[in-house]
Amino acid sequence: MSSTHFGFKTVDESEKAKHVRGVFDSVASKYDVMNDLMSMGLHRVWKAYTVQVANLKEGDQVLDIAGGTGDLAMAFAKKVGATGRVVHTDINEAMLCTGRDRLVDQGLALPTLVCDAEKLPFPDGHFNVVSVAFGLRNMTHKDVALKEMCRVLKPGGKLLVLEFSKIAPPLAKAYDWYSFEILPRLGNLVAADAASYRYLAESIRMHPDQQTLKALMQDSGFAHVDIHNLSLGVVALHVAIRC
Ligand SMILES: C[S@@+](CC[C@H](N)C(=O)[O-])C[C@H]1O[C@@H](n2cnc3c(N)ncnc32)[C@H](O)[C@@H]1O
Fold first, then answer.
1. Candidates 62, 63, 92: which one to mutate for ligand 1, based on the most atoms within 8 Å of Cβ?
2. Is-above-0.85 flag for pTM?
């Protein structure tokens, strides 16, 4: 049996998805308010930037993986128009249902599907753009998921991976203090769940840095990968093209 990490803990590979599900089942109802509080609204800027880089056209076919409460899917849907399609997916039903309700409140009825990024139920070469925001970090086999993303993209299609990354060294101490002292307390106060927000801080530290993720994406079939550091590397947007 192989092991992997769940935050700083070592767990059996076959158990990680269950632990991740527990986190998102627990935080789903408070996810959006916590995102605004934790990032002081910055996650909206990072996502708006991602939407700009996506450069969608009317009629585009888009897949949002680990779409959760639907921020990117909502913004993408406004760009692709009536002739395009945005498929909103996540492995977690609680997150996806919260997102679907938000989308419906905005007058958007998108195809919504529970699915694992490691086994995408879509044909080869189908989408113009695939996105995954703050989701890759939680996946057990990132290489398998990236290969699946590559498979479902059309040749010339674009993958957008928005994820926490390695912050610039001068800020690392302050960021550690904020992540390990403040975040779990905020999680406890707002969502009555310190452990999930401790997992968040730990999982960020265990995630590959900018260059390591770029190499992983290249090994997964993407010939061209650009890195856009945002907020001094707190987050990075990796943009890859399927050749
Ligand atoms: C931090 S949330 C991000 C939600 C949304 N994309 C956003 O940016 O606000 C991470 C999401 O990844 C999903 N996730 C984790 N593992 C996954 C997998 N193997 N396949 C698909 N989604 C997954 C979780 O269920 C969760 O909804």
1. 92
2. yes
The CA R_g of the chain, rounded to the nearest whole Å, is 17
CA–CA gap between residue 6 and residue 14 (Å, rounded): 11
For ligand 1, whether the C-beta of 67 sits within 6 Å is yes
Q: Give the tokens for residue 170.
A: 């001068």
**CB–CB of 126/151 below 8 Å?**
no
Quote the tokens at residue 178: 């904020």
Instruction: Determine whether the shortest distance from the Cβ of 96 to ligand 1 is under 6 A.
Output: no
Q: Please write the tens of the pLDDT for every residue from 115-147.
A: 999 999 999 999 999 999 999 999 999 999 999
Q: Is 200 in the pocket of ligand 1 (CB under 6 A)?
A: no
Q: Decide: 191 in ligand 1 pocket, CB within 6 A.
A: no
DSSP calls for 129-170: EEEEES-GGG-S-HHHHHHHHHHHEEEEEEEEEEEE-PPPGG
